[in-house]
Design brief:
Distance between the termini: 26 Å
Strand content: 15-25%
Strand order of the largest sheet: 5-4-3-6-10
CATH topology of the largest domain: Nucleotidyltransferase, domain 5
Oligomer: single chain
Radius of gyration: 22 Å
Length: about 375
Protein backbone atom coordinates (compact mmCIF):
# COMPACT_ATOMS: atom_id res chain seq x y z
CA UNK A 1 0.00 0.00 0.00
CA UNK A 2 2.82 2.41 0.88
CA UNK A 3 4.58 1.73 -2.41
CA UNK A 4 1.37 2.45 -4.31
CA UNK A 5 0.86 5.69 -2.40
CA UNK A 6 4.41 6.76 -3.11
CA UNK A 7 3.98 5.87 -6.77
CA UNK A 8 0.76 7.89 -6.98
CA UNK A 9 2.48 10.86 -5.31
CA UNK A 10 5.37 10.61 -7.74
CA UNK A 11 3.05 10.55 -10.73
CA UNK A 12 1.14 13.58 -9.43
CA UNK A 13 4.40 15.46 -8.95
CA UNK A 14 5.57 14.54 -12.45
CA UNK A 15 2.28 15.70 -13.94
CA UNK A 16 2.47 18.98 -12.00
CA UNK A 17 6.01 19.51 -13.25
CA UNK A 18 4.95 18.92 -16.86
CA UNK A 19 1.97 21.27 -16.54
CA UNK A 20 4.16 24.07 -15.25
CA UNK A 21 6.88 23.34 -17.82
CA UNK A 22 4.31 23.92 -20.57
CA UNK A 23 3.14 27.14 -18.91
CA UNK A 24 6.67 28.50 -18.53
CA UNK A 25 7.61 27.50 -22.09
CA UNK A 26 4.65 29.46 -23.46
CA UNK A 27 5.44 32.48 -21.36
CA UNK A 28 8.95 32.50 -22.85
CA UNK A 29 7.78 31.55 -26.38
CA UNK A 30 4.14 32.64 -26.78
CA UNK A 31 2.25 31.31 -29.78
CA UNK A 32 3.79 27.84 -29.91
CA UNK A 33 1.54 24.96 -30.91
CA UNK A 34 1.02 21.61 -29.19
CA UNK A 35 3.49 20.05 -31.64
CA UNK A 36 6.05 22.77 -30.85
CA UNK A 37 5.64 22.10 -27.13
CA UNK A 38 6.02 18.34 -27.56
CA UNK A 39 9.28 18.85 -29.45
CA UNK A 40 10.64 21.49 -27.06
CA UNK A 41 9.83 19.59 -23.86
CA UNK A 42 10.43 16.05 -25.17
CA UNK A 43 6.88 14.92 -24.38
CA UNK A 44 4.47 12.89 -26.50
CA UNK A 45 1.87 14.78 -28.48
CA UNK A 46 -0.95 13.00 -26.66
CA UNK A 47 0.51 13.96 -23.27
CA UNK A 48 0.88 17.59 -24.31
CA UNK A 49 -2.68 17.70 -25.69
CA UNK A 50 -4.13 16.39 -22.42
CA UNK A 51 -2.07 18.75 -20.29
CA UNK A 52 -2.85 21.76 -22.47
CA UNK A 53 -6.56 21.02 -22.21
CA UNK A 54 -6.27 20.97 -18.42
CA UNK A 55 -4.33 24.24 -18.38
CA UNK A 56 -6.95 25.89 -20.61
CA UNK A 57 -9.82 24.61 -18.46
CA UNK A 58 -8.14 25.89 -15.28
CA UNK A 59 -7.42 29.38 -16.60
CA UNK A 60 -3.67 29.19 -17.26
CA UNK A 61 -3.71 29.16 -21.07
CA UNK A 62 -5.87 30.10 -24.03
CA UNK A 63 -5.78 29.20 -27.71
CA UNK A 64 -6.40 31.60 -30.54
CA UNK A 65 -7.86 30.98 -33.93
CA UNK A 66 -5.41 30.61 -36.77
CA UNK A 67 -5.47 33.38 -39.37
CA UNK A 68 -6.43 31.94 -42.75
CA UNK A 69 -3.60 32.53 -45.23
CA UNK A 70 -4.71 30.43 -48.18
CA UNK A 71 -2.06 27.78 -47.54
CA UNK A 72 -3.11 24.18 -48.04
CA UNK A 73 -3.54 22.08 -44.89
CA UNK A 74 -4.58 22.76 -41.32
CA UNK A 75 -2.25 25.10 -39.46
CA UNK A 76 -1.37 24.34 -35.80
CA UNK A 77 -3.32 26.34 -33.21
CA UNK A 78 -1.13 28.84 -31.33
CA UNK A 79 -1.28 28.84 -27.53
CA UNK A 80 -0.77 31.74 -25.11
CA UNK A 81 -0.77 32.45 -21.40
CA UNK A 82 -4.29 33.58 -20.43
CA UNK A 83 -3.98 37.22 -19.27
CA UNK A 84 -7.43 37.47 -17.70
CA UNK A 85 -8.57 34.63 -15.45
CA UNK A 86 -5.77 33.93 -12.95
CA UNK A 87 -4.15 36.85 -11.13
CA UNK A 88 -1.28 37.59 -8.75
CA UNK A 89 -1.12 40.09 -5.90
CA UNK A 90 2.23 41.79 -5.33
CA UNK A 91 3.05 43.90 -2.29
CA UNK A 92 5.97 46.15 -1.44
CA UNK A 93 6.75 46.95 2.19
CA UNK A 94 8.93 50.05 1.98
CA UNK A 95 10.35 52.34 4.64
CA UNK A 96 7.18 54.06 5.85
CA UNK A 97 5.02 53.08 2.89
CA UNK A 98 3.36 50.06 1.28
CA UNK A 99 2.29 49.47 -2.31
CA UNK A 100 0.01 46.77 -3.68
CA UNK A 101 -0.48 45.76 -7.32
CA UNK A 102 -2.77 43.26 -9.01
CA UNK A 103 -1.19 41.66 -12.08
CA UNK A 104 -1.85 39.09 -14.74
CA UNK A 105 0.30 35.98 -15.00
CA UNK A 106 2.54 37.87 -17.43
CA UNK A 107 2.98 41.01 -15.34
CA UNK A 108 0.41 43.48 -16.70
CA UNK A 109 -0.61 45.77 -13.82
CA UNK A 110 -4.40 45.76 -13.53
CA UNK A 111 -4.82 47.77 -10.32
CA UNK A 112 -2.56 49.49 -7.77
CA UNK A 113 -2.74 51.29 -4.46
CA UNK A 114 -0.25 52.91 -2.03
CA UNK A 115 -0.38 54.06 1.60
CA UNK A 116 1.93 55.16 4.40
CA UNK A 117 2.57 53.71 7.85
CA UNK A 118 4.38 54.93 10.95
CA UNK A 119 7.80 53.26 11.23
CA UNK A 120 7.86 54.06 14.96
CA UNK A 121 4.99 51.63 15.57
CA UNK A 122 5.20 47.85 15.89
CA UNK A 123 5.30 45.64 12.78
CA UNK A 124 1.64 44.67 13.34
CA UNK A 125 0.62 48.26 12.47
CA UNK A 126 2.39 47.96 9.13
CA UNK A 127 0.73 44.60 8.46
CA UNK A 128 -2.70 46.04 9.31
CA UNK A 129 -2.19 48.85 6.78
CA UNK A 130 -0.82 46.40 4.22
CA UNK A 131 -3.85 44.11 4.68
CA UNK A 132 -6.32 46.98 4.20
CA UNK A 133 -4.70 47.90 0.91
CA UNK A 134 -4.42 44.30 -0.27
CA UNK A 135 -8.15 43.76 0.27
CA UNK A 136 -9.00 47.04 -1.47
CA UNK A 137 -6.96 46.11 -4.56
CA UNK A 138 -8.21 42.50 -4.56
CA UNK A 139 -11.81 43.78 -4.54
CA UNK A 140 -11.22 45.30 -7.98
CA UNK A 141 -10.90 41.92 -9.69
CA UNK A 142 -13.74 40.64 -11.85
CA UNK A 143 -16.23 37.96 -10.82
CA UNK A 144 -14.56 35.37 -13.07
CA UNK A 145 -11.04 36.23 -11.91
CA UNK A 146 -9.15 34.43 -9.15
CA UNK A 147 -6.04 35.44 -7.20
CA UNK A 148 -3.79 32.38 -6.93
CA UNK A 149 -0.76 33.79 -5.12
CA UNK A 150 0.45 36.69 -2.97
CA UNK A 151 4.04 37.92 -3.01
CA UNK A 152 5.68 40.29 -0.52
CA UNK A 153 8.90 42.26 -1.06
CA UNK A 154 10.52 43.18 2.27
CA UNK A 155 13.30 45.69 3.10
CA UNK A 156 15.82 43.25 4.56
CA UNK A 157 17.08 39.69 4.64
CA UNK A 158 14.44 36.95 4.50
CA UNK A 159 14.79 33.38 5.74
CA UNK A 160 12.22 31.53 3.60
CA UNK A 161 12.72 28.22 5.41
CA UNK A 162 11.61 29.83 8.69
CA UNK A 163 9.20 32.28 7.05
CA UNK A 164 10.94 35.18 8.79
CA UNK A 165 12.20 38.65 8.09
CA UNK A 166 15.69 38.27 9.58
CA UNK A 167 16.62 41.93 9.92
CA UNK A 168 15.45 45.24 8.48
CA UNK A 169 17.86 47.95 9.67
CA UNK A 170 15.83 50.98 8.56
CA UNK A 171 12.74 50.02 10.57
CA UNK A 172 14.62 48.08 13.28
CA UNK A 173 12.73 44.81 12.81
CA UNK A 174 14.55 41.66 13.96
CA UNK A 175 13.47 38.01 13.51
CA UNK A 176 9.88 38.92 12.57
CA UNK A 177 7.56 36.01 11.56
CA UNK A 178 6.13 38.26 8.85
CA UNK A 179 4.52 35.49 6.81
CA UNK A 180 2.62 34.04 9.78
CA UNK A 181 1.49 37.51 10.93
CA UNK A 182 0.21 38.40 7.46
CA UNK A 183 -1.66 35.10 7.06
CA UNK A 184 -3.26 35.69 10.45
CA UNK A 185 -4.33 39.19 9.40
CA UNK A 186 -5.88 37.76 6.21
CA UNK A 187 -7.80 35.06 8.11
CA UNK A 188 -11.53 35.41 7.54
CA UNK A 189 -11.09 37.70 4.51
CA UNK A 190 -11.54 36.89 0.80
CA UNK A 191 -7.74 36.38 0.62
CA UNK A 192 -7.64 33.75 3.37
CA UNK A 193 -5.91 30.60 2.18
CA UNK A 194 -4.22 32.20 -0.81
CA UNK A 195 -0.54 31.11 -0.75
CA UNK A 196 1.80 33.83 0.58
CA UNK A 197 5.47 34.07 -0.42
CA UNK A 198 7.99 36.66 0.74
CA UNK A 199 11.52 37.66 -0.15
CA UNK A 200 13.95 40.56 -0.02
CA UNK A 201 12.90 43.57 -2.13
CA UNK A 202 15.90 43.51 -4.48
CA UNK A 203 15.44 39.77 -5.03
CA UNK A 204 11.80 40.15 -6.05
CA UNK A 205 12.65 43.09 -8.32
CA UNK A 206 15.17 40.84 -10.08
CA UNK A 207 12.51 38.16 -10.48
CA UNK A 208 10.17 40.75 -12.00
CA UNK A 209 12.71 41.27 -14.77
CA UNK A 210 13.25 37.57 -15.47
CA UNK A 211 9.73 36.23 -14.91
CA UNK A 212 7.75 39.01 -16.61
CA UNK A 213 10.36 40.12 -19.14
CA UNK A 214 12.20 36.89 -20.00
CA UNK A 215 15.16 36.97 -22.34
CA UNK A 216 17.74 34.21 -22.92
CA UNK A 217 20.35 36.94 -23.51
CA UNK A 218 19.91 38.31 -19.96
CA UNK A 219 21.09 35.27 -18.02
CA UNK A 220 22.60 35.65 -15.48
CA UNK A 221 20.75 38.84 -14.55
CA UNK A 222 21.94 41.10 -11.75
CA UNK A 223 19.58 43.79 -10.47
CA UNK A 224 20.84 46.53 -8.16
CA UNK A 225 18.18 48.47 -6.26
CA UNK A 226 19.19 51.95 -5.03
CA UNK A 227 16.83 53.56 -2.55
CA UNK A 228 16.95 54.08 1.21
CA UNK A 229 19.42 51.21 1.13
CA UNK A 230 21.28 49.42 -1.65
CA UNK A 231 20.57 45.78 -2.45
CA UNK A 232 21.05 43.30 -5.27
CA UNK A 233 19.24 40.29 -6.66
CA UNK A 234 20.86 37.65 -8.87
CA UNK A 235 18.97 35.20 -11.08
CA UNK A 236 20.97 32.42 -12.77
CA UNK A 237 19.37 29.86 -15.07
CA UNK A 238 15.93 30.97 -13.94
CA UNK A 239 16.81 30.42 -10.26
CA UNK A 240 17.05 33.13 -7.63
CA UNK A 241 20.23 32.94 -5.54
CA UNK A 242 19.43 33.92 -1.95
CA UNK A 243 22.29 32.45 0.09
CA UNK A 244 22.24 30.05 3.02
CA UNK A 245 20.40 32.46 5.33
CA UNK A 246 18.53 34.56 2.79
CA UNK A 247 21.06 37.40 3.14
CA UNK A 248 22.72 37.24 -0.29
CA UNK A 249 22.68 40.54 -2.13
CA UNK A 250 23.24 42.89 0.83
CA UNK A 251 25.70 44.79 -1.33
CA UNK A 252 24.84 48.10 0.30
CA UNK A 253 27.28 47.17 3.03
CA UNK A 254 30.24 46.56 0.77
CA UNK A 255 32.86 49.13 1.75
CA UNK A 256 33.77 51.45 -1.14
CA UNK A 257 35.68 54.13 0.78
CA UNK A 258 37.97 53.61 3.77
CA UNK A 259 37.01 56.03 6.60
CA UNK A 260 34.07 57.24 4.53
CA UNK A 261 30.74 58.51 5.90
CA UNK A 262 29.04 56.53 8.65
CA UNK A 263 26.53 53.90 7.45
CA UNK A 264 23.32 52.77 9.17
CA UNK A 265 25.08 49.47 9.93
CA UNK A 266 27.72 51.28 12.01
CA UNK A 267 30.60 50.90 9.58
CA UNK A 268 32.12 53.64 7.46
CA UNK A 269 32.28 54.00 3.69
CA UNK A 270 29.57 51.46 2.79
CA UNK A 271 27.85 51.76 -0.58
CA UNK A 272 24.61 52.74 1.16
CA UNK A 273 26.31 55.70 2.87
CA UNK A 274 27.74 56.89 -0.45
CA UNK A 275 24.87 56.27 -2.91
CA UNK A 276 21.73 55.55 -0.83
CA UNK A 277 18.86 58.01 -0.44
CA UNK A 278 20.46 59.93 2.43
CA UNK A 279 23.57 60.55 0.33
CA UNK A 280 21.46 61.67 -2.64
CA UNK A 281 19.11 63.98 -0.73
CA UNK A 282 19.83 67.62 -0.02
CA UNK A 283 21.24 68.11 3.46
CA UNK A 284 21.90 71.42 5.23
CA UNK A 285 20.97 73.28 2.05
CA UNK A 286 23.79 71.72 0.04
CA UNK A 287 23.10 69.94 -3.24
CA UNK A 288 24.35 66.35 -3.36
CA UNK A 289 27.22 65.55 -5.69
CA UNK A 290 25.39 63.24 -8.10
CA UNK A 291 28.42 62.86 -10.33
CA UNK A 292 30.46 61.56 -7.40
CA UNK A 293 27.62 59.28 -6.28
CA UNK A 294 27.34 57.97 -9.85
CA UNK A 295 31.06 57.18 -9.85
CA UNK A 296 30.71 55.21 -6.61
CA UNK A 297 27.71 53.36 -8.04
CA UNK A 298 29.80 52.57 -11.11
CA UNK A 299 32.55 51.19 -8.87
CA UNK A 300 30.01 49.00 -7.06
CA UNK A 301 28.63 47.68 -10.36
CA UNK A 302 32.16 47.04 -11.63
CA UNK A 303 32.95 44.99 -8.51
CA UNK A 304 29.72 43.00 -8.86
CA UNK A 305 30.35 42.44 -12.58
CA UNK A 306 33.78 40.99 -11.79
CA UNK A 307 32.31 38.78 -9.06
CA UNK A 308 29.31 37.41 -10.99
CA UNK A 309 29.96 38.04 -14.71
CA UNK A 310 26.29 38.86 -15.42
CA UNK A 311 24.95 39.00 -18.96
CA UNK A 312 22.89 42.02 -17.94
CA UNK A 313 22.92 44.53 -15.07
CA UNK A 314 19.61 46.24 -14.27
CA UNK A 315 19.33 49.39 -12.14
CA UNK A 316 16.15 50.04 -10.18
CA UNK A 317 14.83 52.04 -7.25
CA UNK A 318 14.05 55.73 -6.66
CA UNK A 319 17.60 56.83 -7.50
CA UNK A 320 17.07 55.87 -11.14
CA UNK A 321 14.51 58.69 -11.42
CA UNK A 322 17.42 61.16 -11.15
CA UNK A 323 18.19 60.28 -14.77
CA UNK A 324 21.44 61.07 -16.52
CA UNK A 325 22.70 63.26 -13.67
CA UNK A 326 23.38 59.97 -11.86
CA UNK A 327 23.40 57.41 -14.68
CA UNK A 328 25.85 59.16 -17.04
CA UNK A 329 28.75 58.95 -14.55
CA UNK A 330 27.77 55.34 -13.80
CA UNK A 331 28.13 54.43 -17.47
CA UNK A 332 31.33 56.46 -17.84
CA UNK A 333 32.90 54.69 -14.85
CA UNK A 334 31.99 51.25 -16.18
CA UNK A 335 33.34 52.19 -19.60
CA UNK A 336 36.64 53.41 -18.13
CA UNK A 337 37.18 50.18 -16.19
CA UNK A 338 36.28 48.05 -19.22
CA UNK A 339 38.65 49.92 -21.52
CA UNK A 340 41.50 49.75 -19.00
CA UNK A 341 41.13 45.97 -18.76
CA UNK A 342 40.40 45.58 -22.50
CA UNK A 343 37.18 43.82 -21.58
CA UNK A 344 33.67 44.34 -22.96
CA UNK A 345 31.57 46.84 -21.02
CA UNK A 346 28.74 45.22 -19.01
CA UNK A 347 25.27 45.58 -20.50
CA UNK A 348 23.38 48.07 -18.33
CA UNK A 349 19.72 49.07 -18.42
CA UNK A 350 17.00 50.53 -16.19
CA UNK A 351 14.34 48.32 -14.56
CA UNK A 352 11.33 47.73 -16.78
CA UNK A 353 8.72 48.43 -14.10
CA UNK A 354 10.20 51.64 -12.70
CA UNK A 355 8.67 52.68 -9.37
CA UNK A 356 6.63 49.45 -9.35
CA UNK A 357 9.70 47.21 -9.65
CA UNK A 358 9.36 45.79 -6.12
CA UNK A 359 5.57 45.41 -6.02
CA UNK A 360 5.41 43.86 -9.50
CA UNK A 361 8.46 41.77 -8.63
CA UNK A 362 6.62 40.49 -5.57
CA UNK A 363 3.80 39.31 -7.85
CA UNK A 364 6.48 37.64 -9.97
CA UNK A 365 7.78 35.91 -6.83
CA UNK A 366 4.36 34.36 -6.26
CA UNK A 367 4.22 33.16 -9.87
CA UNK A 368 7.80 31.88 -9.64
CA UNK A 369 7.10 29.85 -6.54
CA UNK A 370 3.80 28.47 -7.84
CA UNK A 371 5.11 27.41 -11.25
CA UNK A 372 8.38 25.84 -10.13
CA UNK A 373 7.12 23.13 -7.73
CA UNK A 374 10.61 21.72 -7.24
CA UNK A 375 11.40 24.89 -5.29
CA UNK A 376 9.15 23.72 -2.46
Amino acid sequence: MLMKAESHSGQAQLKRGNLMAIFRQLRLHPGQSRVDLANALDLTKSTVSALVRELIDNGWLLEREVVVTGDIGRRPTPLFVDPARLLLLGTQVGIGHVRVVLTSLTGEVLAARSAGYDTELEVEACIAELTRNMLAVAARRGDAQRIIGIGVGLPGGVDQARDQLVFSPHVHWHQVPFGALLREALHGTPLAGVPVFMQNDADVAALGETEFNPSPTADPLLLVLVGEGVGAGLVVGGRLLTGARGLAGEVGHMVLQIDGPRCSCGRRGCAEALIGNRALMRQDGDAPDLARAGQYLGVLLQNLAVAYDPACIVLGGPAVELGDALLAPVRATLQDYAQAARMPEPTLRVARFGADAIAVGAAALAGYRLTQPTLG
